[in-house]
Design brief:
single chain; 261 residues; alpha/beta; Rossmann fold; six-stranded mixed sheet; four-stranded antiparallel sheet; 9 helices; globular; binds adenosine-5'-triphosphate; binds magnesium ion
Length: 261
């Protein structure tokens, strides 16, 4: 296969370390995510997954280490959430990602409004684009949801879909989902998983964090496993069955890997 032009990786982290006071939350974290790769990040509570995501998305800098996003070296002195957006890194949180009282089309463009020459918001254009995203990017057809629907009327899965659709519209190269299915019904979870399949089809990258191994297994190309702040394995899906992955994780959960060392 001929490689398309442009950077090969959506992100590379090199020897990232994060201390909270004396607590070491991340140690020697080195990994990459390919530009069209879906990576499942797995690990027990407190393993450091969300901390890693926060560094990636510009919430806070690491104590040490380097990061390259879409081929560009990140300067942590200036890197923040806004710059992460500019670099094509977007994240979707369970609740906070969408303004409840807003109508959908407004919500799509918060902070990135399309303006007409005199500085007024171009409502017509924003609505048309919101409609287009809903039908083509996230596949809402009919079902009574329009660009004028209130966010509060949407189900959990639909909200995740809107947030993902927004990230896709603004051409996110890497979409990070940190437990996007917590508190969703099975049907809603299915929607979120389908959105992730769509990210893959669209040629973009995704980092997916969930405690549901079956879900992670379905959508990922590769699994990165964390244990107490360190990356302990990176396994391609083709090299492991769901059962074997589950057993592997159980061994860590029971501390068997410690005894081996
Ligand atoms: N702001 C903070 N201040 C101090 N310690 C923190 C802070 N954020 C995280 N930690 C600690 O860093 C470690 C990693 O936490 P993190 O939230 O990254 O884990 P996680 O893998 O996302 O876990 P979970 O699966 O429960 O979401 C934990 O020991 C946690 O207590
Ligand atoms: Mg977490």
């Amino acid at each position: 296969m001929i490689e398309p032009p442009g950077p090969r990786y959506a992100v590379q982290m090199i020897n990232i370390e994060k201390y909270f006071g004396l607590v070491c939350a991340l140690k020697n974290v080195t990994f990459d995510v390919g530009r069209n790769e879906i990576v499942g990040l797995i690990g027990d509570n407190g393993a450091g997954k969300s901390t890693l995501v926060k560094i990636l998305t510009g919430v806070f800098p690491p104590t040490n280490g380097q990061m390259v996003v879409a081929g560009r070296q990140v300067n942590f002195k200036t890197y923040n959430v806004k710059q992460a957006h500019a670099h094509g890194v977007e994240t979707v949180y369970q609740d906070r990602s969408l303004g409840e009282k807003q109508v959908l089309w407004r919500n799509f463009f918060v902070g990135r409004e399309i303006l007409r020459p005199f500085g007024f918001i171009d409502v017509k254009k924003e609505k048309a684009i919101a409609d287009e995203i809903m039908v083509n990017t996230i596949g809402f057809r009919g079902k009574g949801i329009t660009a004028d629907s209130k966010v509060s009327k949407l189900s959990g899965g639909e909200r995740q879909g809107v947030a993902i659709g927004r990230a896709m519209h603004f051409e996110a190269e890497l979409i990070i989902l940190d437990e996007p299915t917590v508190a969703l019904s099975l049907k809603e979870v299915r929607k979120v998983l389908n959105f992730v399949h769509k990210i893959k089809e669209d040629g973009k990258a995704c980092m997916y964090i969930s405690h549901d191994i079956q879900d992670v297994y379905e959508i990922s190309d590769r699994f990165i496993i964390m244990d107490r702040g360190e990356i302990v394995a990176s396994i391609a899906k083709q090299d492991i069955t769901l059962k074997a992955l589950d057993d592997f994780l159980l061994e860590y959960a029971h501390g068997l890997k410690d005894k081996e060392a």
